[in-house]
Amino acid sequence: MSGGLIGSQEPLAERYDLALVDLDGVAYRGHEPIAGASDGLTAARARGMRLVFVTNNASREPQSVADQLTSLDIPTTADEVMTAAQACAQLLRTRLPEGARVLVVGGAGLVTAVRLAGYEVVESADDEPAAVAQGFAPDLGWAQLAEAAYAVERGAWHVASNLDLSLPTARGFAPGNGSLVGAVRAATGVEPDSAGKPSPTMYHMAVERAGAREALVVGDRLDTDLAGARAGGFAGLHVLTGVSSARDDVLAHPGERPHFIGADLGSLLVVHPEPSAAGDGWWRCGSATARVAGGVLELGRGAADSRDGRLDQVRAACAAAWDAVDAGQDLDATTVPELDVER
Predict the structure, then answer these.
(1) Which top CATH class is 85-194?
(2) 85-194: same fold as 12-56+198-269?
(3) Parallel, antiparallel, or unpaired for β 18-21 and 50-55?
(4) pLDDT, tens digit, 9 for 90 and up, residues 24-78
(5) Which residues are the active-site residues?
(6) How far apart are the first and last CA of the chain?
(7) Could you tell me the residue ranges of all domains in the chain?
(8) Less packed terminus of the chain by CB within 10 Å, N or C?
(9) What's the pTM value of the predicted model, to 2 decimals?
(10) Which residues form a coiled coil (predicted)?
(11) Architecture of 12-56+198-269 per CATH?
(12) Tens of pLDDT along 157-212?
């Protein structure tokens, strides 16, 4: 698959039979809906696209996630949810025999997933667990983190459901599981293994469960959702409703670059133009142009009078920046503007 942006002459909901959709920052923000999410997903389903919601949140049961989505006018069943807790339990099975003791530091979703995988859940390092499974829970405190550290110091395998440093909420960005895992890492000096994104484990599990022909990853974070897409060989759509911005797209490392960029989940319903080289270092997408000259990103004029035009400007800027950087040129990040498509 191309290392840059690709085009689609048919709506993504018709090109791909399965969408692996992130939750926080894509379908909702905290407990609040994201504008256009319900309409976009409903219309995508009507065009034949199936959905599996793939989340790095390991604290909740799949049914709880499905209930929340349904309450936001996105009807969902539990078998359409794939959590990092389920992926964490799957990772444990690669090394631990059934019946092994696992210290679970996290919410109910992780406890359930570990038990269903055939392990004995314990709460203390003194129970001599073979592994520590750590996931986010809003009520997680020092005492639980200390037990995890004690167990890891004594040789327990440390497995994190995910390493997201931040968690989008209705009030802003809060510390995510990666920040809490960092406390245990700092105390022990031991680097944990991770089951969640950017590992593509959950994506492969979801595709296998659905029996999909061709899947599209949809996410808001380059370092997890889109990096996981690249790692797993899936096409990735970056929607600009969450953590990573259009400017982040332009500056993205090769392993985190999206294949498509859209403003929101409505981008599942439209065609996506592919940028093309226009000569003298310029790249064009629609009427938008961009190039990198002397380390400076230059944007053409006349494409920023509509949201579609601004999206094309982002695409052209990405193509120009990625081509220059991959060819060994320097790009001065201070010359890359915010590129807000909604202004």
Answers:
(1) alpha beta
(2) yes
(3) parallel
(4) 899 998 788 999 999 999 999 999 999 999 988 888 889 999 999 999 999 999 9
(5) 22, 24
(6) 33
(7) 12-56+198-269, 85-194, 276-335
(8) C
(9) 0.87
(10) none
(11) 3-Layer(aba) Sandwich (3.40)
(12) 999 998 888 877 778 888 999 999 999 999 999 999 998 899 898 899 899 989 99
